Amino acid sequence: MADSLRLYFRYVGIAIRGQLQYRAAFVLKVVGYCIATGVEFLGLWALFARFGSLAGWTLREVALIYGVADVGFALADGLSRGLDRFGDVLKAGEFDRMLVRPRSTILQLLGFDFRLLTFGRMAQGIIALAWAGQFVAWSPGRAALLALSFACTTCLFIGLAVLQATTAFWTIESLEVWNAFTYGGNYASQYPFDIYTRWLRAFFTAILPLALTGYVPVRAILGRDPLDAWHVIAPLAGPLFLIIALGVWRIGVRHHASTGS
Amino acid sequence: MPQIVARDLAKSFRVAERSPGMLGAVRGLVARRYKTVDALAGVSFSIEAGELVGYIGPNGAGKSTTIKILAGILVPDGGTAEVAGRVPWRERIAHVARIGVVFGQRTQLWWDLPVIESLDMLRHIYKVPADAFAKQRAELVELLGLGDLLDTPVRQLSLGQRMRADLAASLVHAPDILFLDEPTIGLDAVSKLAVRAFVQRLNRERGVTVILTTHDMDDIEALCERVIVIGGGKILSDGPLAELRAQVSRERWLTVDLADGSDISDPDATVIRRDGNRVCLAFDPSVVSPAELIRRVTAAHPIRDLFVENPPIETIIARLYGA
Amino acid sequence: MGYLAIIAARFRTLLQYRAAALAGLFTQIFFGIVRIMILSAFYAASRSQHAPMSLREVVGYIWLGQAMLLLMPWRIDEDVLRQVNDGSIVYELARPLDLQAVWLARGVAWRTAPVLLRLVPMLVLAMVVLPIFEPAWALAPPSAAAFAAWLVCFAGAIVLSAAISALMNVTLLWSLAGSGIPMIVGALATIFGGLTIPLVLFPAWSQPIIYALPFAGLLDLPSRIFTGNLPAHDVIYVLADQLVWSLVLIAFGRWLLARGVRKLVVQGG
User: Strands, E, within B218-268: which ranges?
Assistant: First the structure.
């Protein structure tokens, strides 16, 4: 496990070295990317300015939810770019090369196309968090819960990316459907889940547990709920989701081995 | 105890059929049609450690399917295979750690990195200990003449240089078995010789088992003592190269571009094709040497251009079965 | 004539990727429903009485935004990017062609097929299917006048979008500065075109600024016509806004292209 981690960091190292060769263009792209992903928050702010509250939630509270959702997603998005590109990898026949190496295919894919740029997305979430964080009564428990929430949300989105990559074994064309769950899920989780209808809430609790990795712990951090065992266990649905996704990936690899491509 | 055993390997693929045009596209929306392609229909052979075997056949004959099965990345529909005592697709990671694969047209090196960093990266992927790697790398650099290239990014290498670097990359972990898929394709003559010399040394001095798939008969002639011929998913011939030569009549083709439209005839050659002023003659070099035939033809006819070649492998295979 | 062929070819290619089309549709519907729920929750507050747009109109607006998503000038023309990167752009520039006109025409031709292919099913779904399940989320059918006016604006939006894209193509000639610009423009088009929230919901003091930008004509203004938030006869103003901005952007693009060509020639390509 440690060795795999070391190898992953090597992959990251060579990717960064390669990308930093083009320094000026890189900085510009990062700035552009930050702006591009940051404008969404403007819409949220405008709505609060006009309507004052969202089903009993204030802007300060929603900003915390927003920040947690966005940072978790941005982290996962940056880490799993290689998985996003899996359709291209298959088409180019590069996957055979990965199968011929004595390492986990997921590990190789994660290291395949690491891009620093994607992390620029985090800027928006971090700013929202920093602002909203000043209004929270912090305690060591709440801070730890926040960290747990990040980690678990990231695990969940990486799991989604794994599932998305797995579908490429069966069809390259339908990959877009996963955007509904990744970008759609991220978008939906920027707002408190109690504004959604029952079936959507059920979906985001039982099937794609974004409500458990972000919303539930944030309720405890904001003091709307007590910080009890449930609020600590619920986020673990994220890593669980990832483990299940990896199992599905293995099925996909087996399928690929029997049908070629 | 053979190192590589294949027994009755069978593999079929389902391929979607796409009809052309607008109507076909709309029909494709509703129902897709598939057809089954039999890539392998019972392939068997066994290879001892240290052999250098050529694996040839026309396109679509099943060569890459066989290689993929032996490499462990494809599971056959029927039959078994064993490589160094393992079933390749059942123990992927353990199996793959002991083999090397070179795909001729695709590089396994990192495009933007200097060669030496690619090799270093592979060392970590294959978990080669530092001292073993240092020794192995030094030997490979010397044998393949990579000294000047080590700091060059891969994207700046010529095709011949890249192939040499790819060969080194495939051997970083000192595998016992090496699969070479079209290693000399597109290379200039000098690089081809370098690659062949290297492969021969690897096999003779280190005892690395080599399986070579190629369309270049000169590769086969230079390297392989044993040749397996596959066609239509079946093994057509398996044995020493000399036997293959004996089976198929030794034949070469002389193609001439005539300056006029005259008819060519020669007692020792047969006209097999005529295309305007371009005539292709087949002859047996043991009956009439190429130089002699050229002399005769150019003496009798005004010639613009000419060349001599081996008949393509498809012709040889087709001849094998009197097609 | 040639452009008709391009449009037809695009249709053919897109039809082949039926799964991708359905997948895209599904994603848009999902986003639409989530957006509607969010906006509905905001509208539940008492202050909503005085909103410049009713919830019904907002719902319709959201569906139109999803339906017309592919119209947004997000993507740069990949072919042009490739040409710039490998240098073959010089061949294009050397030809006695009006390159910008070509890009403009390509932009129009390339957008029409995918937009229509997405637009029609979404409108059917939002106007016909959805009322059966959840009438509160349905797109209210427009009056005949509003629909006719909207069609005109739709055409104007396509031209405007193509004009913005053509301008972005030109910026690619400046590889350093150009690389971030399409992304930023795309983002600005998203928020100031009205995809994130209806523009009228922004604070009152910002309205003049927002509507002075070219992006409003892409999505916001046509959608307001469709939902009746703007009276049908205001189509004159919408069209004028779209066309004036298109002309300005095209003119700017031409000037920029000329400068870019000169720069390339000076630098030796």
Answer: 226-231, 234-240, 252-258
Counting DSSP H helices and E strands in chain A, the numbers are: 15, 0
Residue of A nearest to B91 (CA): A102
The more confidently predicted of residues C266 and C49 is: C49
A1, A91, A99: which to substitute to probe chain B, counting the most B Cβ within 10 Å? Answer: A99
Q: Which residue has the tokens 């959840």?
A: C134
Q: Provide, rounded to the nearest whole percent, the portion of chain B with pLDDT above 70.
A: 90
Inter-chain contact C16–B18, Cβ cutoff 8 Å?
yes
**Confidence tier at A53 by pLDDT (50, 70, 90):** confident
Token pair 């359905």: residue: C22
Q: With a threshold of 0.95, tell me whether the complex ipTM lies above it.
A: no
Region for B283 from its dihedrals, namely left if φ exceeds 0, alpha if ψ lies in -120 to 50, beta otherwise: beta
C116: Cβ–Cβ under 8 A, 6 or more apart, which residues?
A: none
Minimum mean pLDDT among B238-247, B253-262, C216-225: which range? Answer: B238-247
Contacts of B94 in chain A (CB under 8 A): 102
Cβ contacts of B110 on chain A, cutoff 8 Å: 14, 18
Radius of gyration of chain C (CA): 20
Q: Please list, in sequence order, all residues whose beta carbon lies within 8 angstroms of the beta carbon of residue A230, skipping any fewer than 6 positions away.
A: A216
DSSP designation for C196: S
Judged by DSSP in three states, C24 sits in helix
In the structure encoding, which two tokens stand for residue A30, read together?
């990062």
Across the interface, whether the CB atoms of A99 and B72 are under 8 A apart is answered yes
Is this model's pTM higher than 0.80 or not?
A: yes
CB A131 within 8 A of CB A63: yes
Are the C-beta atoms of A37 and A124 separated by less than 8 Å?
yes
- Provide the 3-class DSSP secondary structure of residue B45: strand
Contacts of B124 in chain A (CB under 8 A): 6-7, 10
Dihedral angle sign, alpha carbons of residues C106, C109, C115, C118 = negative
Across residues B87-110, what is the average pLDDT?
89
**Residue pair B181/B213 in contact by the 8 Å Cβ criterion:** yes
The residues, ordered by sequence, that sit 6+ positions from A156 with a Cβ below 8 Å of its Cβ are: A72, A76, A208, A209, A210, A213, A237, A238, A241, A242
DSSP-based three-state secondary structure for A114: coil
CA distances from C11 to A7, A27, B286, C74, C114 (A): 45, 39, 61, 20, 8
Count of residues in chain C: 269
Count other C-beta atoms under 10 Å from residue A157's C-beta.
30
Adjacent-strand bridge partners of B303: B258
- C2 beta partners: none
Backbone angles phi, psi at B218, to 5 degrees: -65, -35
- Could you read off the pLDDT of B193-209 as tens digits, one per residue? 989 999 999 999 999 99
- pLDDT at B260 exceeding the cut of 50: yes
**With an 8 Å Cβ cutoff, is C197 touching chain A?**
yes
